[in-house]
Amino acid sequence: MGLRPGERVVIVTDRPEIEVGTALKKSAEKITGASNVKLFVLEDLTTRPITSLPVAIADAVPDANVTFWAAQSLPGELVVRRQFTTLAKKYARHGHMPNVTPVLMEQGMNSDYDRVYELTHKIFDLVRTARNISVSNRFGVKIEAAFDPSWRWVAADGRYHDKGRWGNLPEGETYTAPKVVNGKLVTHLLGDWFSEKYGNFPEALSLQIDSSVIDLRSVNCDNEGLKKDLLKYFTTDPNSIRASEFALPTNPELMMMPTIGNLLQDEKSRVHIAFGDPYQDDTGAPWRCPTHIDMLLEECDLEVDGRAIMKKGNYVV
User: Fold this and answer.
1) Residue ranges covered by each domain of the chain
2) Sheet holding 37-41, edge to edge
3) Are 304 and 133 in contact (CB under 8 A)?
4) Spelled out in words, what is the top-level CATH class assigned to the domain 9-98?
5) In angstroms, rounded to a whole number, what is the distance separating the alpha carbons of residues 72 and 88?
6) Which residues on neighbouring strands pair with residue 187, listed in sequence order?
7) DSSP strand E in the chain: where?
8) What pLDDT digit, counting tens, does each position of 141-166 carry?
9) I need a labelling partner for 218 at 20 to 30 A (CA). Which of 10, 104, 240, 304 fits?
């Protein structure tokens, strides 16, 4: 985050993630002084799941240079997290850490971020003018994605030193919103609050995507509770079933490790596709949605405009 002496920091955490929130507070105080760091614990301000941003937090953000959100994700809270992120980007630079845990601090946050920065920009340069990308793997994934040259790719490189910049930490990916997606998707890990509730689930979830929209009749999973929760999630908004993000991993250390069942870290190590909100402010895609759910794809073979750049989840360029 490039924190400098004298800068002001706002940290939002909660009881489940208080260890991480407190550690961030102590580290920030060493650089900028205790009087410049404010820590908010959500349960001290309101009941969970939260439906609106607490006034005390909203009032503190305009005075901050750096902000963190280090709290557990609960159903229905995505809209509030987006409110906080939008406010934080207006006044500060923001480190977004929903569902962060001590394990993520010890693994993904201890990556070599010079290497993350270098790989992120190498892959960004390879894909930023891509027209078509194909993805397949041994689990049955077979996807074709087309891209609009006027929509932007984002290099999430882990360096957020300028006002208005932000990223999900641990970091390392490059992404955009796809124009059109078709094919079969198979996953064992979902984003938003599904990551916290289900982790890596052994029963594969599969679905069909037609013209960027999930065919709800095709959603198949032996875990009936997971399937029921997901189908309910997909009814939140008409765009909840629309493909909204296509992302490539760029954290080289995490790419060599097994997934741990926490999307915040695992998405920096594997190809993933999301449905719902397309991060319009970042990508330029022309719609918004109150939901955003990532789906992780393992051991991918990937071609960019006919050129192979990944085999079995490893870059070959």
Assistant:
1) 9-98, 111-315
2) 37-41, 9-13, 66-70, 93-96, 166-168
3) yes
4) alpha beta
5) 18
6) 205
7) 9-13, 37-41, 66-70, 93-96, 132-136, 142-146, 154-156, 166-168, 173-176, 180-187, 205-210, 213-220, 243-249, 271-276, 292-297, 301-304, 307-311, 314-315
8) 999 999 999 999 999 999 999 999 99
9) 304
